Amino acid sequence: MTRALILGGTADANQLAEALAHVGLDAIYSYGGRTRAPAGQPLPTRIGGFGGVAGLAEYIRQEGITHVIDATHPFAAEMSRNAVAACAETGTPLIAVERAPWARTPGDTWIEVADIASAVAALPENRARVFLAIGRQHIAPFGARPQHAYTLRFVDPPEGALPFDANVIVSRGPFTLDGELEMMQARGIEWVVARNSGGDGARAKIDAARALGLPVIMLSRPQLPERPRMDNVADALQWLGHRTCLGA
Ligand code: NAP
């Protein structure tokens, strides 16, 4: 009997949950617990960390999980590394559902960097208006460049003080090209800092930056251990031994 665990929090994970519910496959959806009111799922859902590799291995055993699908955000590296280790420990088949990263296209001005410290260092010396489109847990190092006027965008309003002065937009998305163009023009954005998430859900800001001729400091994806990867939900479903009429 198949009993799948989806490590979620992304549009792909949500689409996969819908597909699994549609075919009636036994599965559990797991959220990391970063957003206050995560989207409802058509599957039984759990929220919060497992307690590292040991905690996840224990969870897999206790719940009788037969397959793990890591559909987390490509920058959720700790969760992905833990999944590789816990699945190796328990002998549980694992795949990652991961969209290809965005590729530079004509008109893009990207400065590709490997980590947050390099992104901070790549900002100009002179004051600029910067759209910092990265997760809230990564913004603190930008306090080293307090001369800039930062715009941040979060799903939930920030709890407590931010590590530096910033304008905060609270919005869950998805974001359209027109919406991103309007936001960037209204705020006079001059630089964008983004993670190379890939997929369509987050790319409007990159298209808008290109259209406006803005430089993008693009964080490359973290290095992860080798694991089988699929770039669409239909293939993941097939891996679980099911077919669906839902598109990828
Ligand atoms: P991370 O740094 O890799 O994870 C840190 C810890 O959080 C993990 O070790 C694990 O704790 C817990 N965790 C993360 N994802 C989890 C999940 N799906 N289920 C249960 N526990 C989870 O991850 P992150 O970058 O903070 O991202 C956290 C979550 O937000 C991920 O699920 C990711 O998919 C989602 N996210 C979505 C977007 C988006 O644009 N849709 C963007 C960023 C993040 P333990 O070690 O205690 O198990």
What report would you give on this structure?
This protein has 7 helices and 12 strands. The chain is α/β, with parallel strands linked by helices. The protein folds into 2 domains: 4-100 and 223-239, Rossmann fold (3-Layer(aba) Sandwich), CATH 3.40.50.720; 109-219, Rossmann fold, CATH 3.40.50.720. Helix 6 (204-212) links the parallel strand 10 (191-195) and strand 11. Helix 2 (52-63) packs across helix 3. The model has no long low-confidence stretch (mean pLDDT 94). The site of NADP nicotinamide-adenine-dinucleotide phosphate has 24 residues, from strand 2, helix 2 and helix 3.
List descriptors.
248 residues, alpha/beta, Rossmann fold, 2 domains, six-stranded parallel beta sheet, 12 strands, elongated
Topology:
Elements: E1 4-7, H1 11-23, E2 27-31, E3 45-47, H2 52-63, E4 67-70, H3 77-90, E5 94-97, E6 109-113, H4 116-122, E7 129-133, E8 149-154, E9 166-170, H5 177-186, E10 191-195, H6 204-212, E11 215-219, E12 229-230, H7 233-239
Parallel strand pairs: 1-2, 1-4, 2-3, 4-5, 5-12, 6-11, 7-8, 7-10, 8-9, 10-11
Helix pairs in contact: 1-7, 2-3, 5-6
This protein binds NADP nicotinamide-adenine-dinucleotide phosphate.
